[in-house]
């Protein structure tokens, strides 16, 4: 998921939805869509010429009236058995079935003696999903529905309805419905948000599989998060916009819509992404005005190219509004003007399609639900927003489950007071702070916490954090079980046994244990060092190597297993491992030396006097310490230190800060390299993000006991963990 962060806040993400006031279901428990709508079918027996099939009558969604003369009916006389078959072209998932038959005994029109719904993957061998005996006792001159469901969802390419009728009778039939599985849970996800970069990587079969898995879980919509980047002037489709180039291999817009057409899923197209939003917000009126024009031009281009797709069901405006960066009515007014102008233009293109926004709230820094409510009353009174898809913020660490009700309630009240026609949806985050899949048990609790305030649930993101094509398939299996039963399995894995460890060098401990077992399967292990959780392994491998430790130090370890539901085993027995002494390299070659950087520090956390990295003053574990310099970026950047002449190098390290509460995160990797000329560099080594607890702390990224390394220039390349802050202080080169 693409997330951007400001110093005090994570920009949580996104959401999907549809709109009940515009003809799309707004209830999470509403019946699943009929996947036969608009599909062609074949019939084993042609309809009578007096009551013919005028073309697609069974799947056109138009129900015949209780009149023999209604042209919606088609009829067969004395046909004791006939059938209809639909070929979906690919495997589809469904569970419930329905067909309407007419009964008018005075005119010799009788309901079937039996109707059987069948499915097949080869159009040869068919399996019965469910069978109904004659229906309609005690009624007459009316349509009689034949409805039944398979015991569990089935997946097949072909579906068939076999009708058995009485001799010398008329059999009148109109609509035939086949529907996706309907979840047993009261709060279930109905769709997802997809980033185009991920979709661009998929083969045709992977696209199909993704939509099949969404269908298995009862989903009916997907949001394509953005279609253009207005900062980089790129699009994810062959655009007609002047100055824009396509930066994806495939036409992701076309592919998404075609999948929606094929699977009967609603597709919502996001307009532009621009990372400068997280710098400017509404403070730069000229910039925001330019983005207004760009949004209108993009919407026009998309509608011209793709508006004829049946699956194109709405729009998403991707700039995320929050209560920290829009603190007063001055900012609210500018945002409302942007919304209202863009929405008015979109409505001239597609009057019946909803426009959705996805704000997020911050619970800290003195911000309150009352202020949040006032903000949205102000905006909604001035902007015709169809849906607010409120990010729950759990995965990003913005809120706890216990806080959700108060913030969603405030949003609901704002809507009722300012624009009651606006729908409120939940954007449930399905990831955790490690940007890994969220426990399904926690997801269930988050959905339940807001159920009194929202009309539908979507996710950021099924596709990225639940789909079996992206993460451990056990997350999909566990979510699907919750979808089907309304509960999350609660069996805990067995306790890891036989934990042992050794220290091969002064900075490393190697652990191993006997693998745990679980009724659904173990998805990973949690590593505890000195009673603190320092690493979560999303693998069932029963070993771990702990690096970047201190020499001559004793550490205690224990391990827990966990499953996709979030059930944890008891802790293993505890062991102690001591690292041996390391070599001390006394001379700091970089002390006071000059350096350059490929990216200037942020003005709020600058490199004071350009000497902070080599002045010997170490920052403390707080981000306001002036010794630190900070950068808010997802892009790699580097520093190059000039030692003045070629030196033998035995050790290099750099200090970084972690303060997760304000999204100061440790880098994903730090790579050290050397050069004699300053032009061609040789890599010494790369340090991956070490295992640490979540507490505020300073952590060294260190390479030591180097052999045959020398050079005048030392480069330190920093790769951030995500779009967040990295804070760096001292870089030391020693021998």
UniProtKB/TrEMBL annotation:
Protein name (database record): DUF4434 domain-containing protein
InterPro entries associated with the record: DUF4434 (IPR027849), FA58C (IPR000421), FN3_dom (IPR003961), FN3_sf (IPR036116), Galactose-bd-like_sf (IPR008979), GH (IPR017853), Ig-like_fold (IPR013783)
Alphabetical keyword list: Signal
Domain Fibronectin type-III: 495-582
Domain of life: Bacteria
Limits of the F5/8 type C domain: 582-735
Keyword match Manganese: no
Signal peptide location: 1-30
């Amino acid at each position: 998921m693409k997330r951007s962060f400001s110093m005090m806040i994570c920009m949580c993400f996104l959401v999907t939805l549809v709109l009940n006031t515009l003809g799309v279901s707004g209830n999470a428990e509403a019946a699943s869509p009929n996947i036969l709508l608009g599909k062609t079918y074949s019939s084993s027996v042609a309809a009578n010429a007096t009551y013919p099939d005028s073309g697609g009558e069974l799947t056109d969604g138009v129900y015949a009236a209780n009149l023999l003369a209604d042209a919606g009916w088609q009829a067969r006389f004395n046909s004791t058995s006939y059938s209809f078959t639909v070929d979906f072209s690919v495997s589809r998932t469904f569970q419930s079935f329905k067909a309407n038959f007419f009964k008018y005994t005075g005119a010799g029109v009788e309901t079937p003696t039996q109707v059987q719904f069948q499915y097949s993957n080869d159009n040869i061998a068919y399996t019965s999903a469910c069978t109904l005996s004659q229906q309609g006792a005690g009624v007459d001159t009316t349509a009689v529905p034949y409805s039944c469901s398979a015991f569990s969802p089935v997946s097949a390419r072909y579906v068939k309805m076999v009708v058995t009728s009485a001799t010398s009778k008329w059999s009148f039939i109109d609509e035939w419905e086949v529907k996706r599985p309907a979840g047993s849970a009261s709060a279930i996800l109905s769709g997802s948000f997809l980033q185009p970069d991920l979709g661009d990587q998929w083969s045709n079969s992977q696209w199909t599989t993704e939509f099949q898995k969404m269908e298995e879980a009862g989903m009916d919509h997907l949001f394509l998060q953005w279609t253009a980047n207005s900062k980089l002037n790129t699009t994810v489709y062959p655009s007609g916009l002047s100055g824009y180039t396509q930066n994806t291999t495939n036409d992701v817009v076309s592919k998404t819509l075609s999948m929606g057409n094929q699977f009967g899923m609603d597709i919502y197209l996001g307009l532009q992404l621009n990372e400068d939003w997280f710098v400017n917000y509404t403070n730069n009126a000229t910039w925001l005005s330019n983005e207004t024009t760009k949004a209108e031009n993009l919407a026009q281009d998309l509608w011209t190219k793709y508006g004829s797709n049946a699956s194109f069901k709405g729009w998403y405006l991707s700039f995320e509004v929050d209560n920290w960066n829009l603190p007063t009515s001055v900012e609210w007014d500018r945002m409302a003007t942007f919304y209202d102008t863009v929405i008015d233009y979109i409505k001239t293109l597609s009057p019946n399609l909803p426009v959705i926004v996805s704000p997020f709230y911050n619970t800290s820094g003195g911000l309150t639900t009352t202020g949040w409510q006032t903000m949205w009353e102000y905006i909604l009174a001035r902007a015709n927003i169809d849906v607010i898809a409120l990010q729950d913020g759990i995965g990003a660490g913005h809120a706890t489950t216990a806080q959700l009700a108060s913030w969603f309630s405030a949003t609901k009240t704002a809507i009722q007071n300012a624009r009651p026609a606006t729908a409120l949806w939940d954007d449930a985050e399905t990831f955790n702070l490690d940007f890994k899949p969220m426990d399904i048990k926690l997801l269930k609790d988050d959905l339940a916490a807001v159920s009194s305030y929202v009309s539908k649930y979507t996710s950021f993101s099924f596709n990225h954090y639940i789909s079996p094509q992206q993460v451990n398939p056990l997350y999909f299996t566990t979510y699907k079980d919750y979808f089907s039963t309304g509960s999350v399995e609660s069996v805990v894995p067995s306790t890891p046994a036989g934990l042992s460890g050794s220290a091969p060098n002064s900075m490393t401990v190697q652990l191993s244990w006997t693998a745990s077992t679980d009724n659904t399967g173990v998805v990973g292990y949690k590593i505890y060092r000195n009673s603190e959780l320092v690493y979560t392994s999303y693998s069932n491998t029963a070993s771990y190597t702990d690096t970047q430790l201190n020499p001559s130090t004793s550490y205690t370890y224990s391990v827990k297993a966990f499953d996709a539901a979030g059930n944890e085993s008891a802790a293993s027995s505890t062991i102690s491992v001591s690292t041996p002494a390391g070599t001390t390299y006394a001379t700091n070659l970089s002390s006071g030396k000059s350096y350059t950087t490929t990216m200037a520090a942020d003005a709020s956390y600058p490199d004071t006097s350009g000497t902070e990295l080599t002045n010997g003053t170490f920052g403390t574990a707080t981000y306001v310490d002036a010794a630190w310099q900070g950068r808010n970026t997802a892009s790699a950047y580097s520093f190059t230190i000039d030692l003045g002449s070629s030196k033998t190098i035995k050790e290099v390290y750099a200090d970084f800060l972690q303060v997760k509460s304000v999204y100061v995160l440790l880098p994903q990797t730090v790579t050290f390299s050397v050069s004699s000329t300053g032009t061609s560099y040789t890599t010494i080594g790369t340090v991956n993000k070490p295992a640490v607890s979540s507490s505020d702390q300073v952590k060294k990224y260190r390479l030591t006991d180097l052999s045959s390394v020398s050079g005048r220039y030392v480069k330190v390349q920093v790769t951030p963990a995500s779009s967040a802050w990295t804070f760096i202080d001292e870089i030391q080169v020693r021998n």
